[in-house]
User: Fold these one by one.
Assistant:
Number 1:
Amino acid sequence: MKTLKIAIQKSGRLNEKSVEILKNCGLSFENYKSSLISTVTNFPLEILFLRDDDIPEYVQDGIADLGIVGENVIVETKAEVDYLQKLGFGKCTLKIAVQATSGIQNLEELNGKAIATSYPVILEKFLQEKGIKSDIRTISGSVEIGPGLGLSDAIFDIVSTGGTLKSNGLKPFADVMQSEAVLIGNKSIADNPEVAELLQRIRSVLSAKSNKYVVLNVSKDNLQKVVDLLPGVKSPTVVPLFEPNWVAVHSVIAEEDFWDKINSLKAAGAEGILVMPIEKIIR
Ligand SMILES: Nc1ncnc2c1ncn2[C@@H]1O[C@H](COP(=O)(O)OP(=O)(O)OP(=O)(O)O)[C@@H](O)[C@H]1O
Ligand SMILES: O=P(O)(O)OC[C@H]1O[C@H](OP(=O)(O)OP(=O)(O)O)[C@H](O)[C@@H]1O
Ligand SMILES: [Mg+2]
């Protein structure tokens, strides 16, 4: 059996959630901060802790078989890797921003202006598509202070809440790319059975996270209306209550339309609704 290697971020925005998803897959390992490699004791896997910028290339070159990294970094490094699974965390947008007081109104006004960024490849491609010629100034961090220091007229960087832009007197100007953390794989590992097993575990953890387990009581007169609202994994489970003419319905509902569903269930006659988290869904 081949021991796989997965590269995750050593510290930063993606570290904690990357460790959490692997632990939720039932993998046992020490998350030492001092060591750059950790061995999983109950699965043929080693975890490499790296700077996120290096992860796509490590995976492309087969030094790591798998990696967890933001889509923005994959696109920026132009690495040739397989996208195996979006992971639902590290969600952000890459935006061009300008000083809140600047009179810049439209993209054409960026012609000849300096834009500071840590993502020159993504920015260059966007500007080229729009036919804009700007002076791209590549810096490795703290991009948002560029305009205030007179280094640039605009910036291109990651935005999530917008708090960093605001506190530096900047305002968003154009959205260029959405990003989230993804599981990537080396091009040659698609048929590896251990990769398939790990992917199945990750998908079952993600699916459980985006669903809730629901138990409710309903009189048999309203049962069909309630069941019509509940898909379940296959179909809902219906069990009799001690109270004549009443049943309990067990089912699974999606987190995204959770409140709409609960309100519809109540309107259809559901009572005593219990909602519980699910640990895993194995399909
Ligand atoms: N504010 C944010 N909200 C959500 N996701 C973010 C945010 N900032 C960054 N990300 C995502 O997390 C990734 C890692 O961000 P982080 O700031 O930890 O990177 P870094 O400073 O380059 O880290 P490293 O030391 O590993 O090079 C980004 O590439 C992006 O995909
Ligand atoms: O819109 P916001 O919610 O304010 O997030 C955006 C900020 O988050 C990231 O930096 P991070 O805080 O990860 O620090 P870093 O610059 O050291 O990577 C990014 O580079 C932005 O500066
Ligand atoms: Mg980095």
Number 2:
Amino acid sequence: MDEQFLDLLAQIYDTEEKVVTEIINLEAISNLPKGTEHFVSDLHGEFQAFQHVLRNGSGTVKEKIKTLFREVWTDQEINDFTALIYYPEEKIQLVKENLCNKQALNRWYRQTIEHMLKLISYASSKYTRSKLRKALPEQFIYIVEELLYKTDSTNNKDPYYEEIYRQVISLGQADNLIIGLAYTTQRLVVDHLHVVGDIYDRGPDPDKIMDTLINYHSVDIQWGNHDVLWIGAYSGSLVCLANIIRICARYDNLDIIENVYGINLRPLLNLAEKYYDDNPAFRPNLQSNLNRSEEEILQITKIHQAIAMIQFKLEIPIIKRRPYFNMSERLLLEHIDFDKTEIKIGEKMYPLVNSCFATVHPQFPEQLLEEEQQVMEKLLFSVQHSEKLARHMNFFMKKGSLYLKYNGNLLFHGCIPLENNGNMKEMQIEDKTYSGRKLLDILEYYLRYAFAHPEVTDDLATDIVWYIWTGECSSLFGKREMTTFERYFIKDKDTYKERKNPYYHLRENEEICRKILQEFEMNPDYGHIINGHTPVKEIRGENPVKANGKLVVIDGGFSKAYQSTTGIAGYTLLYNSFGMQLVAHQKFNSKEDVLCSGTDLLSIKRLVDKELERKLVRETNVGESLLEKISNLKNLLEYHYMK
Ligand SMILES: O=P(O)(O)OC[C@H]1O[C@](O)(COP(=O)(O)O)[C@@H](O)[C@@H]1O
Ligand SMILES: [Mn+2]
């Protein structure tokens, strides 16, 4: 053992007692049951639904309440108490409106605080006191600990405890305490959160999701293709930037760009007004709660066309300078016959509808007009100087990765590119080829490089970020093509098909999943693969649990736009010391619904895997580092204190 390292350690643990206490403490912690992991994916800006799932811990909160109070409470009482834990501020307000006088309210406060303490004591039973303390509302730690750890069997202290309750209420602190305890409960039921990609696009509030995650006690993110698009835009990729604006226009979410991130769209609007008109293919998918005037809709429609055409132009030079991206089929603007308004795709000619090619030079379709160039430069400047976006993208880099090995499971958003025969598919980058884990590592390396060099806009790293969004060998996309152009301009729906990498059907096969786990040096007997990205069409009988339980796909469609295809409103996964459970969520309407009806449209649970023996902290990633620390401390004890 390195003596210098031990000397440093000795500065922190400078007495024998300190070393011994820490060893005992860590040994004890590593023998506790493992904490609950919570997996979500494909949130797509649906903040309300997401925060509901966070608040209810995918059903864990209600389950614990039922276990404790089922025998003594009616369903209505259980629902009321559950709603209080989810949305304490609003529920307290409702209770106040319904109770007739102060005495009744005080009685409710007294009972409710006691019930909450009982729930917290139960929910924290597998944690150390110190961990619980960190989760308690700061200003009430002392009081709550007194009430939680009552040990007086002689009842001598009863009046003392009663006085604490009375004082909290009479000093007007009951609301704050109840609210604080509700959040403590929410925090205790989930130890760690995994977001398996696609926080951004389609829905209205990705920024609120990011803020929630930034403040969350323990989280990691596996980037989705839509997240990478935003990272790309921030890192200087103009084509990624065009894409995020196009998608925001398409889903009537330009507010995110303009108001949330403060990016000025005026120059783009001026350009759009000059060259574009109404066009049915580019009318936005309206958010039902926004009352848009015809004039606003027309403006969005024009912006949508302007930015889509810039996007299609910008793709061309990248495809040409990176032949190994293997995307020459996507040079679509070059295959247009502008006189006949037709396009050749493969061997077939298709008429173009809804065309809006006023800014395209038929011989040089990749050329941006001077005005387009300027608009993009201004947009990029604005994007790279948005403080809020910088905060969100930095958080992505800090907590995110393309894939993650965690407690024996392998998490990634989309796929591991495979050949039809199940071998890892190779991708060439410059003069080398990569596949499997090495491919994901090199893609991530380039993404991080691009992020670190935002001033460079056309190097390989920046181009690769766009490739991760849309390339066939991207583990976040994994389809042969993205047929955005066809869906705008061609009637024949056959052209909309996006051919999926064989992974997406081979993953039904257990052997393939085992092979992938081995590729990542994981134990295929215990590990699982967790994916998002492809909406599971439960409505058509698709099973999210595949390959004999080795793989789970948890994209059930938080995204409202996809709920009619999936038939549900998203899956989440829970992994606690007893095993792994999949939770299917019903459509989330609003928190008002939960508060009024009290019922929670939850969640059918399915067991994915059951641990034969309860899993302990020592068998987890955290446990591994605890054991390493214990070993270091034991060395220190020997080297410093036992000489
Ligand atoms: O339905 P939209 O928003 O037009 O997007 C369709 C596009 O989104 C994609 O499905 C990618 O997004 P997802 O990662 O959410 O699946 C593409 O395959 C497809 O071309
Ligand atoms: Mn995706």
